Amino acid sequence: MRKITVSLLLILSFCINAQDKKYSDKEIGFDRDKITKKLLNRDFSKDEIDLILQQERAIMISLSEAESTRRKSVENNSKIQQGKSACTVPSTERQALIDFYNSTNGSGWTDNTNWNTSAPVCDWYGVNVSNGHVNKIQLSNNNLSGTIPSSIEDLTQLDELFLFLNNITGAIPTEIGNLSNLVELNLTSNDLSGPIPSTIGNLNNLEFLNLGSNDLIGNIPSSFSNLSSIKVLSLNSNDLSGTIPSFIWSLTTLEVIQLGVNNFSGTISTSVSNLTNLQTFSITANNFSGTIPTVFGSIGGLLYLYLGSNEFEGTVPASIGNLISLIGLSFNNNNLEGTIPPSFQNLVNLEFFNFNWNAFFGDIPSLTTNDFTSFNFNYNRFIFSDFEDEFPSYNSSGIAFFAYAPQAKVDQVETITVYVGQQMSLTTILSSPNNTYQWYKDGVPLSPIVGVNEYTVPNVTFSDAGVYYFTATNSIINGLTLERYPITVIVEDTPPPTDCEDCYSFKPIPKEKYILSAWTKERVGEQVISYLSPSIEINYLDNSDTEIGEDNFFPNGRIIEEWQRIFDEFTIPEGTASIEIVLKNKGGNEVFFDDIRIHPFNGSMKSFVYDPVTQRLMAELDENNYSTFYEYDLEGGLIRVKKETEKGVYTIQETRSKTSIGN
To answer: By three-state DSSP, how is residue 65 classified?
Structure first.
């Protein structure tokens, strides 16, 4: 059996014990108030905070269990050496312990047995001696206060220093960097402040560095590039900032990177794939952006991948479905969209899976055999049919944290014109026969419709004009109600003539050059660099409707969030009386077209999209047919501006607020 140190084993098992009620927050040193305050100051919602606290508390439970095991080991070793000459240590080391006792209010410790007495040092509570030198100090959860004295450097043979779960204040002394034999340093859950000393980078033998749940500031020191033996880097729940330094990706001994609840930013380098021993990567509640690297899928030993509460954009890589050993996976509360890859059905060991507060849609891969502790996908764009078949299994399996409601409104805002005497049909993308639709007209409920996703008025009158929407429930998925975006119906008396005699606001001229642009999408089952099925054909007809020429236009350039641009020029042949535009699909996949525009070659064109109900500007399309998107909260406040470019969609302005899904 592969040998794993106690501390690492327990860190990597925290999801299993996450909801263990036998521990109080005080017993595990979990500072709920401190973490909550930090998150409130950054405008996190209550639901977001609860989810983060759940994960952070689970980590503290595992650390506490690891500490308990270590304490028993240290105490047993101390007892073995009592009364032996090996208990005698140099006077400088004894004085360093006395300095430490006085500086950390030793008289107020929970257990200070034999400290600052004539008893052999190995009989002092929490001190271990080996070969005539102090080699371990274990004083966790012992009510230490005050500061760590600089004379700590005189304990030259110290290899373990455990002081977590106390009330130590001040800065971490730079002299700690002189403890060249130190293998484990754990100062988690204190009130330490200031920057992380760069001298810690001198500790070439250091394997476990735990500085979480303090008030440390600044960046990760560049000297950490020298930590050639480091396995666990835990800096969570501080006020650290900056980017993840590039040298981190060269520390190939790393097994745990825990940076959650800080102010880190920047992107995650694809060089993360260098960390082939990585088992835990946690950066929850920071300000990371960009896309999620596909190379995560190549780190086969990953057990926990926590990317939640950041600013990641784009889609989720299908390669993550290769990580069949994953136990915990979170990318909740980001700006992600698209579908959850079908490959995620391979993640049969997942116990903790959160992807709520995004813009995901489509079928959710079946994970009904998983033994979930937490499974949350509310605040997305899912509809009943996306998880209707699996819901009974999820709902009956006793998942401790299971959230699937609410979801965003369905369909889109529409305005349609119908005419007196015609039939009017209002539809939706919802299609499950288990749905019941309660339609409303101008806020007044109409008769409910069961199983049919269409509202029909066979003979329209002027009284049918108004604003329509529905709320839908499902007989299988209880507790979720979906609402349709409104349809504004305008009723007019007479249909327009079939032939438009005066439509000359834009009239293409033969022998002149024009620009055609459009956006197209093809539903494909795998990643492609260009779409092959969609195209646009322009046919040129003379006065007798005989075709005298044609041009074909195909997608080109990058695929941006599933859409690819068609952009090209054409010249209308002489003798053309009319043109015919044909949207073509030469493949077997479903294709879509949007934002089709034609304008003179020497001209330019801008388009503006407004919400017909709120009159808010929703998008602006520039002369190259690239969009600027504007997103609002429910109160009408602008919360995000995104710019579409040839390289992708980027957020260029944001006011963080995720308490609700905007319209």
So the answer is: helix
